User: Which sequence fits this backbone?
């Protein structure tokens, strides 16, 4: 019990520390419960995307096509929603997201081209298809179709996505295989795991979560416009930063929880910097430095602790 | 398995080539159907033939998937086709290296002339050099050259025909003033990343208004990609500044406006936080009715069409001036839901803002009375009222 409490506190330490820093720097913003609530809600969309990415990154893959998938799914789902209503829009988003990433996964598995190359090429293709889809200028959905982007629906969808990701990652043989491949692919193969099959499934699962996040994104902003020239890749980076934090926190908490903590922390930082009136360029510098410092500390924590212990020992009188 | 792999490899290669052609290497306007639907104008000089040679005009543009890019590209296409020409589009983006590649692509695809919206003055010497070496006339749209040395260098090229631009500084000032007039004190600025000439000019106008009115930019956001990014930015600004009372889009209005409105609705700020934008988004009528909009200006997508007219006059052997010229195009200003209705009706409906017949009348080859002064008058009278007057019998 005490151990569990300790782990919970350790997990919440990162967002709590970041929050306290900004509370000191910008008390007028961070003293309000409403601000915290907004930051929490803003973490939901990148977290859903992050849970999809977490399967990809955990099995030593990359997927830069998810931005292109999200844009294409958003455009098609908006069109379907405008014609047939909310439920078909939801189904289209989830099914199309899964199908598109299944295509990406199939190409990766059949051609055995590095995932980074395949996914960048697929991002270009998905973007182009989005630009060619019907009017070519995207869609805006009416207020009635945006309810899924607002509370409590976005919260409910977020919780459901969390539960699915948690169960898939921790309570299925697929999740165990993903973790095994992530730790040592050769060893996993020798133990009878089929890496290519698992990686293909990782793309399919990732697509499922990207479909949900595209739906949330469309409902949250109310419109989706096509992108070109790999512009959609910029949509990958924020969720990816959260996943990096989640992977580093994996030692003290479940990775699915870690990803949400990571995205929530990024959300606090982004609002904090905005409240301080920092220019966008400087905000990016701060985010980059934060991520680097965090990863350096979390990756080298054991070495740092042993060095500190040795120094302490050396300072003690013999 | 091997066969399937080969088939997929082939399919992937084909789709990649297709994708590159669609997104990067240009789209050829194959059809030559006139968008005007009207009768063909007679040539100005009776010794000349009725139709001009089929010129290939290159349009280097940031993208054709956003609403402004698409409107620009559609109007240029219908105008070039009305003149019997062919349009080649290269939608390479808005970064210096991509734009240089774009010019090279258009030249190598056999364009007789090209028009470009340069990211900044810095790329123009290279663009000028490439066009001069290829001996093809070129124009600049949406931009003017600010750097004196660059201007001198570009204007020294016999192939530089001129530019068309808007008064961006005044546009920025006017929209900021409209927000100040609504009582805004603390605003969120949404704009392009630093370095973009147009956005910087708009921000100069905004800064001038801030000095005069005491209004304050409390935060800024320069990385909008989708409406949801704008929703997030506005939500964060509401959380960070409870007394926020304005959101000003110096850029990204078409993509972000709807997202900003979503955030305002979500936090019950409609009518409490005003929105102003340079560049029109869609579906403005409801926002005007809700008293959410402080001011809107835009509709300047006809700009590249005018630079193409300049090029066509040059290619037809009837240049409007013997030295580079600058055309100033008006922004359309919307102040009410009725203005917005009229804008959508006359600017974005089935009849282009300039029909094929009107386009032909701007080319001296077809209309001997066309002069630079007259073309200037056309650009300076551009606006909702002007379009309503010209097309009252065409638009139902």
Assistant:
């Amino acid at each position: 019990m005490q151990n569990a409490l300790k782990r919970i506190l350790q997990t919440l330490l990162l967002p709590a520390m970041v929050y306290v820093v900004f509370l000191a720097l910008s008390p007028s913003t961070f003293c309000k419960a409403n601000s915290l609530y907004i930051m929490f809600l803003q973490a939901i969309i990148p977290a859903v995307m992050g849970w999809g990415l977490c399967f990809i990154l955990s099995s030593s893959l990359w997927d830069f096509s998810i931005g292109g998938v999200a844009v294409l799914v958003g455009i098609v789902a908006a069109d379907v929603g405008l014609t047939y209503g909310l439920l078909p829009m939801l189904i289209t988003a989830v099914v199309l997201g899964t199908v598109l990433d299944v295509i990406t996964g199939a190409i990766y598995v059949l051609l055995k081209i590095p995932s980074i190359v395949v996914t960048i090429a697929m991002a270009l293709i998905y973007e182009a298809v989005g630009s060619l889809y019907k009017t070519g200028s995207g869609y805006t959905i009416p207020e009635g179709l945006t309810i899924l982007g607002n509370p409590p629906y976005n919260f409910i969808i977020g919780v459901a996505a969390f539960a699915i990701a948690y169960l898939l990652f921790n309570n299925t043989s697929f999740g165990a295989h993903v973790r095994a491949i992530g730790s040592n692919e050769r060893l996993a193969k020798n133990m009878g795991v089929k890496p290519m099959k698992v990686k293909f499934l990782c793309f399919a699962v990732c697509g499922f979560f990207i479909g949900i996040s595209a739906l949330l994104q469309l409902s949250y902003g109310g419109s989706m416009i096509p992108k070109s020239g790999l512009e959609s890749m910029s949509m990958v980076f924020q969720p990816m930063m959260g996943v990096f934090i989640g992977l580093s926190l994996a030692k003290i908490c479940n990775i699915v929880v870690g990803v949400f903590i990571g995205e929530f922390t990024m959300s606090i930082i982004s609002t904090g910097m905005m409240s301080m009136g920092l220019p966008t360029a400087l905000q990016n510098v701060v985010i980059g430095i934060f991520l680097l410092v965090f990863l350096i500390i979390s990756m080298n924590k054991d070495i740092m602790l042993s060095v500190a212990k040795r120094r302490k020992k050396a300072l003690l009188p013999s | 398995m091997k066969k399937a792999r080969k088939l997929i490899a082939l399919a992937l290669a084909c789709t990649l080539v297709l994708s590159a052609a669609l997104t990067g290497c240009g789209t050829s306007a194959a059809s030559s159907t006139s968008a005007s639907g009207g009768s063909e104008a007679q040539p100005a000089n009776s010794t000349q033939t009725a139709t001009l040679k089929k010129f290939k005009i290159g349009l280097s543009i940031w993208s054709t998937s956003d609403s402004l890019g698409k409107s620009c590209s559609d109007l240029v296409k219908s105008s070039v086709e009305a003149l019997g020409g062919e349009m080649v589009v290269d939608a390479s983006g808005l970064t210096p290296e991509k734009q240089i590649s774009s010019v090279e692509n258009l030249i190598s695809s056999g364009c007789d002339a090209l028009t470009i919206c340069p990211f900044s003055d810095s790329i123009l010497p290279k663009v000028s050099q490439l066009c001069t070496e290829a001996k093809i006339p070129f124009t600049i749209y949406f931009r003017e050259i600010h750097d004196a040395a660059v201007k001198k260098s570009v204007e020294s090229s016999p192939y530089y025909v001129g530019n068309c631009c808007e008064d961006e500084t005044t546009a920025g000032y006017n929209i900021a003033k409209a927000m100040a007039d609504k009582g805004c004190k603390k605003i969120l600025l949404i704009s392009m990343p630093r370095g973009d000439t147009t956005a910087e000019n708009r921000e100069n106008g905004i800064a001038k208004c801030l000095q005069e009115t005491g209004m304050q930019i409390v935060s800024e956001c320069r990385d909008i990609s989708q409406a949801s990014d704008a929703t997030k930015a506005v939500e964060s600004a509401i959380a960070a500044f409870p007394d926020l009372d304005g959101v000003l889009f110096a850029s990204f209005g078409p993509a972000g406006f709807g997202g900003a409105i979503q955030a305002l609705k979500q936090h019950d700020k409609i009518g409490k936080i005003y929105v102003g934008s340079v560049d029109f988004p869609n579906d403005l009528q409801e926002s005007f009715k809700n008293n959410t909009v402080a001011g809107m200006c835009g509709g300047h997508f006809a700009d590249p069409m005018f630079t193409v007219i300049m090029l066509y006059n040059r290619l037809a052997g009837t240049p409007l001036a013997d030295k580079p010229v600058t055309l100033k195009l008006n922004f359309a200003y919307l102040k009410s839901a009725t203005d917005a209705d009229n804008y959508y009706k006359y600017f974005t409906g089935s009849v282009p803002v300039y029909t094929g017949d009107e386009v032909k009348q701007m080319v001296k080859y077809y209309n001997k009375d066309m002069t630079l002064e007259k073309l200037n008058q056309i650009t300076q009278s551009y606006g909702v009222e002007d379009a309503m007057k010209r097309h009252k019998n065409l638009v139902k």
Remarks:
- Residues 59 and 182 of chain A are 4 Å apart (CA to CA).
